[in-house]
Amino acid sequence: MTSVKQIQVTFDCANPERVARFWCEVLGYVVPPPPPGFADWTAFDRSLPPDRQGSAFACVDPTGVGPRLFFQRVPEGKVVKNRLHLDVRVGTGLVGEQRLAALEAECVRLEKLGAVRVELLRADGYNESCQVMQDVEGNEFCLD
């Protein structure tokens, strides 16, 4: 039996490039090089049939450690809470006021990119504090 070595996280969305570029900024990811034979992703996109143009985009961890993120256009809008979400680990090892300050600083930075603050979940004796947010298309994620 072989073990899984890599995973890709796929997002359904209306505007793949917009959402991908948001997550590049959040995570320090980059857009991978275009396929061979294309100067850039715009040229590749123009080579596709009109109904496929703008239908997908991706970003990758430049260190090669994190998963590839893939964004695909779907016709339906988001209607319910995500069943799976990303935790952006900005407060690892921090507790109390230090953790809250780290969460707040990152929250402010991400709001400038178009994220929306949803709810601060304060430490409860079992879990540390985290900040629930939404990306530019309303997908929930946590600053943890």
Notes on the structure:
The chain has 144 residues and is α/β, with parallel strands linked by helices. It folds into 2 domains: 8-73, no CATH class; 86-143, no CATH class. The protein has helices spanning 16-27, 41-47, 96-112, and strands spanning 8-13, 56-59, 68-73, 86-88, 116-121, 130-134, 140-143. The radius of gyration is 17 Å and the shape is globular. The mean pLDDT is 92.
Question: Concise description?
Answer:
The protein is of the alpha/beta class and 144 residues long.
What is the radius of gyration? 17 Å
Q: Which range best describes the helical content: under 10%, 10-25%, 25-40%, 40-55%, 55-70% or over 70%?
A: 25-40%
Largest sheet: 4 strands, mixed
Separation of the first and last Cα atoms: 34 Å
Count of DSSP strands: 7
Low-confidence stretches: none
Give the overall shape, derived from the CA principal axes.
globular
Numbering strands along the chain, what is their spatial order in the largest sheet? 4-7-6-5
The class by helix and strand makeup works out as alpha/beta
Domain module count: 2
